[in-house]
Amino acid sequence: MISAPTSQHKPGTPAGTASVSHEGKTVELPVLKGSVGPHVIDIRKLYAETDTFTYDPGFTSTASCESSITFIDGDKGVLLYRGYPIEQLAEHGDFLETCYLLLYGDLPTAQQMKEFDRAITYHTMVHEQINYFFRGFRRDAHPMAVMVGVVGALSAFYHDSTDIDDPHQRMVASYRMVAKMPTIAAMAHKYSIGQPFVYPRNDLGYAENFLRMCFAVPAEEYKASPTLARALDRIFILHADHEQNASTSTVRLAGSSGANPFACIAAGIACLWGPAHGGANEAALQMLQEIGDVKRIPEYIALAKDKNDPLRLMGFGHRIYKNYDPRAKVMQKTCHEVLDELGLKNDPLLAVAMELERIALNDDYFVEKKLYPNIDFYSGITLKAMGFPTAMFTALFALARTVGWIAQWTEMIEDPAQKIGRPRQLYTGHPRRDYVPLQKR
Ligand code: SDX
User: Chain centroid to CA 206: how far?
Assistant: First the structure.
C-alpha cells in the first residue's frame, strides 16, 4: 500500500511511505518521487530490517539509480534528453550540441559550442601505435569485436586520463572517447575491407568526417553528400542515450568498481552487441533480406507469433515503449530522405519493411503485446543504403551511444550516494552437504 505523497517536495526526496508486511513484521519504506515519472519505493533498508530481498530478474520494476539525464515515458512514446524532446533535438540541433547537452545538462551558448566543437575536433586522431594494434585482428573480424578490443586497450595508450577521482582527467577521457570513437569505428571498417586508414580532418563536421574516414580512398578526392551527412548526424542524435538500458547499466556497474572509463565503455560496447539490444539493427536487416518479398511476410508473422518458434520480429518490441518508439518515427522519415537522395526509393527492402510494419500493426498478437517498431527497424535499411556493411550497423550505434554512456558514467561517479553495485539472489541450489569420497559415489 502506498500512502498519498505529501504536497510540495524536492524531486528525489521522500513523498510518502509504503508498508511491506511479511511473517508478522511490517516495515515502512520511504516513497521517493522524481520530477516526472513513476514513484520509487526506497528499499535500501529492506534486507536489514526484514532479512528479505526483492526479486526482479531483468529489472522490469527496478530503478537502479537516480538520474537527471534522460527520461522515457513508454506509454506516451516520450523521450527527453535533459528535458528536451528527441524530435526537437533531431529537427533543430546537431549531434555535437546534443553531446554537450547530455554531458553538461543544458544547451550550449554559441561560445560554449565553439569551444566544445574545437576541443572534440582536436581529439579525433588516435595514438599512431593503435594502427599496429589493428594488425592483430583477422580481416574478417566483426567490427564490434574490434571496437571492444581497441576501446578496452585505450587505457594502455592514455594513462593521463584514467584517474577517475580527478575531474580534469574524467573530462579529458570523456572528450577523447566522444572524439575518437568515429575514428576507431572507421578504422574497423577500413581494416575489414583491406583499405588504408583515412585520418580525420579538422575542417569537417562530426558526421561528415566519419563518412569521409569510412568511404574516402587515397586515390581520389571525396566529398560527403550534405544530405547524407545531415541524416547520419540525426541518426547519431537518436542513438545518443536511452536511460538505464542494458549497455548503460553495464557501464554503470563496471564503473561502480572504479574501473577506468575506457574499460567501462568497452564493457558497454560488448553488451550493446547482443541481438536483443544494439545488435537488433543488423539482425533486423538480415531478417528483411531473408523475407525478401512481401509475399513471404505472413509466413514470418506466423513464426514470430508461434510460441514454439524462437523467431522474433527484429526491430519490433521494447521493454519500455508500449507505444511507438519516438525515435522510430524520426528514423523512418530519415530513411525515406536518404533513399530519395540516393534514388533508391524503390528499394525492395523498404517495401518489405513498410508492408511488414503495416501488417504487424494491424495484427492482434502485436497489438495486444504492444509491439511496435523500435529504432532498429528502419536504421538498417538507411545505413545499408548509405553504403555501410551490415556488420557496421551496431558499431555506428556504439559510436553514437558513447556520449550517453559517458554522461551516465560521470553522473554515477559524481553521485555521493554511489557504491559498488552488488545484487543478491534467490538461491535454489543444494543446502549444505558434506563431501563424498570418490570410492563412495
Ligand atoms: C534496443 O532498453 C533500451 O532502451 C534499448 C534500446 C536503447 O536505445 O538502448 O532502445 C535499443 O535494444 C531496442 C530493442 C532492439 N531489440 C529488438 O528489436 C529485438 C526484438 N525485440 C525483442 O527481443 C524484445 O521486444 C525486447 C528484447 C526488445 C524487449 O523484450 P522484453 O521487454 O523482455 O519483452 P519480452 O521478451 O518479455 O516480450 C513480451 C512478449 C513475449 O511474449 P509472451 O512470452 O508474453 O507470450 O512479447 C513477445 C515475447 O515473446 N515479443 C515478441 C517480440 N518482442 C517481444 N514477439 C515477436 N517479436 C518480437 N520482436
Answer: 19
Identify whether the C-beta of residue 207 lies closer than 8 Å to the C-beta of residue 232: yes
State if pTM tops 0.90: yes
Gyration radius from the chain CA atoms: 24
Q: How far is CA 440 from CA 326, 374, 430, in A?
A: 63, 57, 19
**CA angle (208, 237, 253) in 5-degree steps:** 120
**What was the pLDDT predicted at 2?**
45
C-alpha cell belonging to residue 137: 585482428
Query: For the segment 334-393, what is each residue's pLDDT rounded down to a tens digit?
Result: 999 999 999 998 888 889 999 999 988 899 999 999 898 889 988 999 999 999 999 999
Residues 33 and 53: beta-carbon distance below 8 Å: no
- Taking the CA of residue 377 as reference, the ligand 1 atom at the shortest distance is 18
Mutate to test the pocket of ligand 1, among 71, 374, 377 (most ligand atoms within 8 A of CB): 374
Residue located nearest, by CA, to atom 7 of ligand 1: 242
Pocket of ligand 1 (CB under 6 A): 242, 245, 276-278, 280, 304, 312-319, 369, 371, 374-376
C-alpha cell at 410: 560521470
123 is catalytic: no
266's CB contacts (< 8 A; 6+ apart) are 148, 149, 151, 152
CA distance 159 to 254: 18
**Amino acid symbol at 407:** A
The residue whose C-alpha atom lies closest to atom 57 belonging to ligand 1 is 312
The answer to whether residues 379 and 393 touch, using CB atoms and an 8 Å cutoff, is: yes
CB 341 within 8 A of CB 228: yes
CA 1, CA 398: separation in Å to the nearest integer? Answer: 41
User: Cβ(294)–Cβ(354) under 8 Å?
Assistant: no
Q: What pLDDT digit, counting tens, does each position of 106-126 carry?
A: 999 999 999 999 999 999 999
Q: Give the whole-angstrom CA distance, residue 258 versus residue 403.
A: 19
**Strand, coil or helix: what is 411?**
helix
**Nearest residue to 241 via CA among 97, 86, 77:** 86
